Design the sequence.
């Protein structure tokens, strides 16, 4: 590990330790969700990135981890067993591991698209069974319980939950990272690259894949357990295909080929969802747009982008890229503001509230509110704003691309010279 | 017997509808190997196009325009998006179409709101085809079934009896050879994708008029169409038809039965024990009808991954 990397990790750790001291409870809760999403994505990418198994049903282990933990919490609450709250995620991990072992043994008999389909079918089975299976999954309403204080730590507060989550996420991340350095972890890479040859060398690839899948499922279960502790409740929707797909999406936005990329993508997208879902009802549209743009133009994800820069450029060569990237930023902002303006305007003008407003004004297209200003839907000036923004962005796009290519060439030449 | 006849009729019609939606996906999946996650959203797009045109122009105009517009959407997606990411592998293609599904759904919601719209068939089609055990059987259900059968017949004939079909099928197996013989492979793939998307659009316009047309209609079908394609076998049209019918009948029959695993165990004298254990053992078949397609898909994948009618692994 390089020195700059160590420094970055230390800075991140310090920042995360300080979070509860400076943030409001609402934001602490957001950071908890980001940490959990990060761990979920990291454990998913152990199966996906390391062993090349695209699982489309990881929500199964996430949900099972959450339900197992809630059942244990309920048993503690009713004094059936005693179990310290900080060790609750062990239950989630165990549930994830054993279920991953069973389901993984079935799924890893197939490869590629068929593997994805088996995992999808297993998760969908749970998703459709859970609402009718009352004794285990609590029917459609799910189950809920209370956190107990233990080891004289107060878990009623967000701070207590935050540090519990942080410790578990950091520990699990270290385990996942360390796993990639073990012979077993190297074997995972070998299986991804050429399974036939690995089998030829005398390894039991089916067994290895099952075990890797189970370990991935185990840490997914831990993430689910942390979610259960933070929310104190869950229901069958954690099994939905949407949840499985979300983690795939976040992993690829972050960069499936890097170790920390998926966590970065998951944390960023979770934060993005939390912020934008309060601001606008079209946030899913923006999320979809970001995802498609990343898939089309940044196929390695943001983690891949960062590692490309770190690997191929010297620190001094970065100056060649400052101006091109500033132009790119201007283009991105112009296009984004233009698109957001159009979407939000349409949203307001086509809404029911606006229809009522029109009726009270005798059917006229009255001005509408957006971003604290009034806009007249019939005025050409209103629509000139997005048109000018988008046209300007589109006109600058070729320039930005040319400058970036030239900047990269100069930066790489400096290295050669 | 009444239950039997009604269940068979409903199951067959439901299965035919399922086939209508998944026929296009089978085509795309089998011919191009692209797992088009957004397929059910083209179905949704078709339903909304049908709704808009049935108000502005007429029902039949919507029925004609829906496949054309969905097909045009398919052309754009294939030409400007899928082709760019093809080199990164199938996972990328699948994920891209997944993002597209989001965008299509949200854009439709932007224009039509979060609630189902009132898309109905023209009044002259609203009559009972026949009366069965004192229940009137709607003509429109039969109409949907007939449309599905026509789609199947046309696709089958085009794929197996015409030059176009030969080129498309050859392009699946030996793309390099087909290109060497002077056929424009990108155009072939683009047309296949457009045809698949257009079929989904047509299905949407036809079925949307009978079933509710709303923001949830795509999600409900989203994974079920995959089940049909997998169970039927890669790119096998007959397989998709049989699988759709099977799933349709399965669902319509299981809704009517209150059997559970405990009844099965009672046959070997373990009934009382099973009822005591409860949980999974006493769940009635009717309540877990929704799980059945996935169980079927799981079994097919584990026992015969090529599907019922598929011939290659």
Sequence:
């Amino acid at each position: 590990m390089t020195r700059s990397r160590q420094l970055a990790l230390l800075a991140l750790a310090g920042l995360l330790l300080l979070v509860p001291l400076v943030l409001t409870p609402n934001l602490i809760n957001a950071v908890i969700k980001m940490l959990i999403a990060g761990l979920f994505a990291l454990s998913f990418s152990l199966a996906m990135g390391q062993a090349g198994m695209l699982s489309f049903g990881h929500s199964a282990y996430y949900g099972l981890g959450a339900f197992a933990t809630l059942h244990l919490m309920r048993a503690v609450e009713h004094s059936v067993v005693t179990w310290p709250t900080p060790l609750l995620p062990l239950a989630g991990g165990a549930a994830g591991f054993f279920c991953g072992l069973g389901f993984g043994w079935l799924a890893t008999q197939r490869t590629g698209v068929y593997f994805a389909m088996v995992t999808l079918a297993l998760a969908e089975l749970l998703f459709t069974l859970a609402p009718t299976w009352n004794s285990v999954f609590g029917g459609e309403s799910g189950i809920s319980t209370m956190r107990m204080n233990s080891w004289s730590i107060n878990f009623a507060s967000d701070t207590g939950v935050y540090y519990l989550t942080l410790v578990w996420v950091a520990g699990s991340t270290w385990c996942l990272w360390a796993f990639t350095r073990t012979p077993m972890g190297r074997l995972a890479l070998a299986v991804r690259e050429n399974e036939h040859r690995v089998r030829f060398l005398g390894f039991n690839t089916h067994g290895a894949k099952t075990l890797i899948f189970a370990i991935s499922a185990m840490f997914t279960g831990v993430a689910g357990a942390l979610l259960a502790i933070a929310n104190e409740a869950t229901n069958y929707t954690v099994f939905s295909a949407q949840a499985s797909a979300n983690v795939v999406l976040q992993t690829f936005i972050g960069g499936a080929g890097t170790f920390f990329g998926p966590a970065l993508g998951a944390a960023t997208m979770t934060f993005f969802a939390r912020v934008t879902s309060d601001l606008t009802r079209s946030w899913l549209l923006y999320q979809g747009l970001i995802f498609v743009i990343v898939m089309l133009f940044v196929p390695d994800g943001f983690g891949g982008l960062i590692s490309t820069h770190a690997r191929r450029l010297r620190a001094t060569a970065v100056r060649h890229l400052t101006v091109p990237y500033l132009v790119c930023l201007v283009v991105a902002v112009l296009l984004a503001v233009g698109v957001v303006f159009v979407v939000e305007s349409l949203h307001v003008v086509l809404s029911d509230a606006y229809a009522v407003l029109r009726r009270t004004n005798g059917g006229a297209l009255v001005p509408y509110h957006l971003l604290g200003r009034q806009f007249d839907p019939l005025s050409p000036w209103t629509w000139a704003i997005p048109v000018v923004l988008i046209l300007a962005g589109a006109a600058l796009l070729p320039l930005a691309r040319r400058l970036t290519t030239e900047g990269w060439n100069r930066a790489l030449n400096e290295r050669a010279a | 017997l009444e239950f039997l006849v009604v269940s068979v009729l409903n199951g067959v019609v439901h299965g035919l509808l399922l086939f209508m939606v998944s026929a296009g996906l089978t085509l795309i999946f089998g011919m191009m190997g692209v797992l088009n996650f957004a397929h059910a959203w083209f179905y949704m797009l078709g339903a909304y196009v049908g709704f808009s045109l049935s108000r502005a122009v007429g029902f039949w105009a919507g029925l004609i325009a829906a496949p054309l517009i969905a097909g045009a959407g398919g052309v754009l997606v294939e030409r400007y998006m899928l082709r760019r990411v093809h080199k990164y592998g199938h996972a990328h293609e699948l994920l891209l179409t997944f993002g597209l599904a989001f965008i299509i759904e949200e854009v439709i919601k932007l224009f039509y709101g979060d609630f189902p719209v009132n898309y109905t068939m023209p009044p002259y089609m609203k009559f009972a085809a026949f009366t069965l055990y004192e229940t009137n059987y709607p003509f429109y259900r039969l109409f949907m079934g007939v449309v599905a059968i026509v789609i199947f017949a046309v696709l089958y004939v085009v794929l197996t009896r015409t030059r176009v079909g030969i080129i498309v099928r050859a392009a699946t197996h030996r793309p390099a050879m087909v290109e060497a013989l002077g056929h424009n492979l990108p155009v072939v793939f683009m047309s296949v994708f457009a045809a698949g998307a257009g079929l989904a659009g047509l299905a949407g316009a036809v079925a949307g008029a009978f079933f509710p047309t709303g923001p949830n209609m795509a999600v409900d079908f989203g994974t079920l169409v995959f089940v049909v394609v997998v169970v039927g076998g890669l790119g096998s049209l007959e397989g998709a038809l049989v699988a759709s019918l099977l799933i349709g009948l399965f669902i319509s029959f299981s809704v009517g039965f209150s059997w559970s695993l405990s009844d099965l165990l009672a046959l070997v004298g373990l009934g009382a024990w099973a009822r005591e254990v409860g949980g999974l053992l006493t769940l009635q078949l009717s309540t877990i009808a929704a799980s059945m397609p996935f169980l079927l898909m799981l079994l097919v994948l584990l026992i015969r991954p090529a599907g019922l009618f598929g011939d290659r692994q």
Q: What stands out?
A: The mean pLDDT of chain A is 78. The longest helix of chain A spans residues 380-416. Residues 66 and 225 of chain A are 4 Å apart (CA to CA). The first strand of chain A starts at residue 143 and ends at 144.
